[in-house]
Amino acid sequence: MDIRVLKPADIPHVQSTNITNLPENYFMKYYLYHALSWPQLSYVAVDVSRPKKTPYDPPKIVGYVLAKMEEEPVNGIQHGHITSLSVMRTHRRLGLAEKLMRQSQRAMVEMFGAQYVSLHVRMSNIAALRLYRDTLGFEVEKVESKYYADGEDAYSMKMNLNPLREQLEADEDYADEGEEVGDVGKKEKKKEDGEQGKTKRKVKLGRGLGVGELVERNESSKA
Ligand code: ACO
């Protein structure tokens, strides 16, 4: 099973998964709006166990999470929102929904500095409630009366993402990129042997790495 970011080409397959699993369905442009506005937040679970018969076989999408950031947050507090989540019956209870949710929540924190994530769920949806409340740690904020088109009430739920941010920062601080090799490795090793045992060293990861300062060139002075 492959869990990866949703691509615009996946949208028809995600839409068909959504129609199979949920009564809340959306126009194609609403999926596109998510994929283009917040391309890091929506994920799909793809069954890669069966080889493609032709190069044109579509990916077998068995689950998805469609997520976004709140565009006009109250009090300016950045937060994400889960628009829709579902997994095909054939692939349930394998931990896919949990993984899809955790990937999206992580991206909300890393990319957009989200402080919490919200969602709505039917009060009768025991499976989803167990997932959100017991597995992931969401809390019920309030009941929204007649939220759904058929008149059912919804729980409006929220999860604080600050503990996740702290955990990610701690992981980043103590990440170890492995032993250095070649001459550099030898020098380090000698130094360490001379001192008392191994030393810990902070290294930059992810967005802290690689991209140098961008300098804008003044083209007008050339003419
Ligand atoms: N009964 C009780 N608890 C459940 C159930 C269930 N049927 N399904 C999941 N859980 C809980 C369990 O605690 C489970 O952990 P465990 O298997 O170790 O006991 C935990 O959630 C994680 O389960 P996953 O395997 O990650 O969940 P799955 O991939 O099966 O997907 C989902 C769960 C998305 C709710 C699935 O049942 C589904 O697609 N249902 C139909 C669509 C739906 O209701 N979507 C949510 C609507 S709300 C919204 O979209 C914002």
TrEMBL record:
Compositional bias annotation for Acidic residues: 169-182
Keywords on record:
Acyltransferase, Transferase
- Tell whether Acyltransferase is among the UniProt keywords: yes
InterPro entries for this protein: Acyl_CoA_acyltransferase, Ard1-like, GNAT_dom
| The keyword Acyltransferase is assigned to this record | yes
- Check the UniProt entry and state the signal peptide residues, or none: none
Record region (Disordered)? 169-205
**Where are the compositionally biased (Basic and acidic residues) regions?**
183-198
Residues in N-acetyltransferase domain copies: 1-162
Task: Give the family per the record.
Answer: Belongs to the acetyltransferase family. ARD1 subfamily.
The protein here is known as N-acetyltransferase domain-containing protein
Q: What organism is the protein native to? A: Stereocaulon virgatum
